[in-house]
Amino acid sequence: MLQGAPWLLAHRSMLKPNQPFKVSLYGNDYVLWLDSVGKISCLPNACPHLGAMLSEGWCAKKADGTSTVVCPFHALEFDSNGCTVLPNSNKQTKSLSKPLELIIQDDFIWTYGGYEAKISIPTILKDFATEYEFIGHSKNFSVKTELLTMLLNMHDYDHQNGTHRPLFEITEVQFQKFIDNGHHSHAYFDLIRKQPKLNDLLKNPGLLAIPNTINAHLENFFPFCVIVHGESPFASVKQIHFFVPESQTHTRTYVLVYGKAKHPIAHLIKKNFVRLAEVIVEQDVDILGKLYTNIPQNIKMSNEIGMDWAKRNFANFPLIVEPNLSR
């Protein structure tokens, strides 16, 4: 599961103040919570008494604005260090649950999962937060698939006119260029699509911002995110897909959306950009649940260069090796 890579556990907007939020990483469950003064804490999700899920409990607010997470079984309160005060005692215990080390960069909540960092966190997300309006986030999807299969799907540029045909009416993929910079890459390709039907536009007005020919630019940071750079006459949109290896068999994915309006109509439909991203993920999740993953690959498509990039980096992580990509 690529220990030593950074994983974005959540964006601050995904946390409601003083409400426990469950996340999973490397087969372990954790509880995140945000207090009233903006501090974010993270503990193992199992209460060290009898193993109750702390994420099913609540937060107890303190006079100074901080808060503790409360076990739903016996109402034991745990602070950010994993310490508690037992009933009939005025003395705080030592740390009973080791906090997960977080790296907080503005609204981005990163972690290396307790492992030594092998690759660095890119600065591009902080740049987006400075230059673009944060529009919102999709819901979380816990997908029954291992991390590699999830990454291969995201770098499969030929699946646009199959998996996403019902949404975009894509008829053809014309691949242009792939730039390989080790764990960082760019893919450029054109998606030729039919005009959306009126009924589709009424369901998702965000389709108005999508041209007949989509000049796709995907920027990839192995293994944790893919950035879809979207340009239209209405807006410039950054759609960032994140991946978190919950376990050997499950991967969590979600999308953050940033935008910059070019036309007043963009302000009216900007929330639809988030829903559009969510529909794309729903379609990917659906097809990933309908794969026979043990079938050998006997066909190679013409545009699998991104998939080869992902396979190469996965097999050699954390090393960067010479490109050996499809042509």
UniProtKB/TrEMBL annotation:
SUPFAM superfamilies, alphabetized: Bet v1-like, ISP domain
Against Gene3D superfamilies, the record matches this protein to: Rieske [2Fe-2S] iron-sulphur domain
Q: Which InterPro entries match?
A: Cholesterol_7-desaturase (IPR050584), Rieske_2Fe-2S (IPR017941), Rieske_2Fe-2S_sf (IPR036922)
Q: Name one Pfam family in it.
A: Rieske
Annotated Rieske domain residues: 7-111
Q: Which UniProt keywords apply?
A: 2Fe-2S, Iron, Iron-sulfur, Metal-binding
Q: Which domain of life is it from?
A: Bacteria
Q: Which GO terms describe its molecular function?
A: 2 iron, 2 sulfur cluster binding; metal ion binding; monooxygenase activity; oxidoreductase activity, acting on paired donors, with incorporation or reduction of molecular oxygen
Determine if Membrane is one of this entry's keywords. no
Which PANTHER family does this chain map to?
3-CHLOROBENZOATE-3,4-DIOXYGENASE (PTHR21266:SF57), IRON-SULFUR DOMAIN CONTAINING PROTEIN (PTHR21266)
> What protein name does the entry list?
Rieske domain-containing protein
